Every structure is written in C-alpha cells, then in structure tokens.
Amino acid sequence: MEKIAIFIPSLRGGGAERVMLNLASGLANKNYNIDLVVVKLEGQYINQIPQNIKVINLNSKRAITSIIPLIKYIKKNEPNVIVSAMGHINIVAIIAKLFMNNKTKVIITEHTTLSLAKKESKNLKEKIAINILKYIYQYSDAIVAVSKDVAKDMSNMLNIPLEKINVIYNPIISDDLIRKSMENVNDSWFYPGEPPVVISVGRLTEAKDFDTLIYAFKKIYEKMKVRLVILGEGEKRSYLEKLIHDMGLDDDVKIPGFVENPYSYIKRASVFVLSSKREGLPTVLVEALACGTPVISTDCYSGPREILQNGKLGKLVPVGDVDALANEIIKLLENKVENRMLLNELKDFTFESSVQKYIDLIRKVLDE
C-alpha cells in the first residue's frame, strides 16, 4: 500500500491540526502506510496519535528551517504523497518537492480564508507568505479547500481556476466523537439542577472574537442566571481573564484551557456559540451539531453559513454584533430548545465520506 506523509507544524490544540490527525487516522484505518511528519513534536494532541501511525519529528523551531530536514525525510523514506496543511507548511512542502525533483506528489490543503487572513494580519512575514502562495501553489500536484467559500476566495486571491481546486470537507464526525460525547464531565457546573451553560471552544485569538461573546454574556447575565465556559488556550488568555474580572463575572465565567474531551462538555451545554470574525471551515461548529447541542454562530466568512445550511441547522448573527448575539442566546435559553441529533444532515463531514474523497484524489494524483 502507498506511503502517505501528513505534514503539519505541530500537534497543538488547533482545528487544522486536529483535522489532519483525523485524516491520518482515517487513512491508516484504510491500510495506508502513514507517516505523521511534524515541524516540531509538541502540543496537546501528542497522546491522541494512533499506534498505527509513525511519527517523524523534524525538530525545527520554525517551518522555514524544516525545509532541509523535510528534504532528507523524503530522500530516505520516499513517500508516494505528501498531504500538507496551512499556507506556510504548504510552501515548505512544495519547496522540498522542487528540490528533490523525485516522484513524490504534494497535495496541499487550505483551511483559511486567505483574503481576510491577509487583511487582518499584523505580521509582515505572514502577509509576505500569503503573497508567495500565488507563485508557489501552482507547483503542487493537487489543491484542496475545506469549504466552497475558501475555494472561491483562494481562486480570486491566487488566480487559480476554480475547477482546479478540490473541495473536501474535513473528516470530523466519527463513532469515537459520539462515544466521547457520552462520557461524564467532572465539573459541577454541568450537573443536573445547575444554571444553564453557554459554551464556546477555540484558540484564544483575535480572530475568534471571544470579546464579543463575553460582552453578550454580560447582557444575558443581567437578565437570568447563566454561566459561560470557553475551552481553549492562546495569546489572549490574560486579556480575556482581565475583561471577565473587570466586568465582575469571575464567579460565572471560566476558561479551563485545553481539555482532552471537549465533546462531553459541548453535549451537556445548553447552547454552543461560535463568535468568530473569520473562519475557513469551523470544525467545532460541526462537532457541536454532531453532539446535538443548539448552536448560534456569527455569519462570518467563511464556513458557518455553509455548515448551517443558511440558518436551517442553527442561528446566524452578524459578526461583532453584541446585542444580536445576546438576544439569540436568550431566545434559545428561554425556549429551552432540546438537543437534537443532526447526523443525517452532516454526512459530508463524516470520517467515511471525507477520507474516501481524499483516497480518490490520492489515486487520481498518482495515476497522472
């Protein structure tokens, strides 16, 4: 069976890393020989790597310095295909391929709305990297976008014909996710008889806009007894903790950090909220729907409208609109909307569907 290398920066608690680990697991279960190649072996997902996956640690401090170690890996191991994720990692994979000039194929996956990432970035290196993509993505053997809107945005930004971009939704829903959602939560806030909990999950970054969620929660808190839990880590932790303290919400808002099993928390919450300014395809929104928890999301570009089928599966509110977000959360809490299973509506996001589409693409690339 072919050897496939899944190339990612690390195993920190981000959506793209989790998705690529899911893909590696799904391909390994289809009897592919899988190497999980990481720029640096660190992060919360290390202990979630299945035993049938070989881990290759390039042990580099940054993506750019992993080019030589990646070239050495390709020369020694001769993978048939490298599947990479995220712009800077995609660049490294393509450069290594060009240096080697061997039979290894490169499939790049884009998880980000590039136009918004460039517009909002305050990092000059990141903006330069996005500009480089226009010239380097053409040397890949196939391009995957995780949503239709990411594909359209990439086509416009990088002048790539839309028909050359393959849209494959992330492998998110599995039997393991459903099983984990049924596990108990060792947190008294989720016990029967306690006030309802609003939950959100994501990296504590500017793009996730937890500020708006906290301001909206304050308005809800003034009208009813309710609690807020935000699962995740990131550079805005201290800022958000200060905001919570300054608003007098210390007793009813908490940020537990990264947790091994967020699904059991999500399932027991009354409402799941995605407050992002921008996304590519928000994995956690699909996970919340799979857990059966009522969801509210900002109508950010891109992903939520696509996932929620224009509002059929959950409420959409304008980005950054504190009042609209607060009002929709209050409506759900007051109406006590029951959790509902929507797995039939989410078939495109199952392991089986997504992994099979990647297998089809891998076969197509190898046949060319």
Automatic annotation (TrEMBL):
Residues 189-340 form the Glycosyl transferase family domain. GO terms for molecular function: glycosyltransferase activity. This is Glycosyltransferase involved in cell wall bisynthesis. It holds the Pfam family Glyco_transf_4. PANTHER family: GLYCOSYLTRANSFERASE. Keywords: Transferase. Residues 14-172 form the Glycosyltransferase subfamily 4-like N-terminal domain.
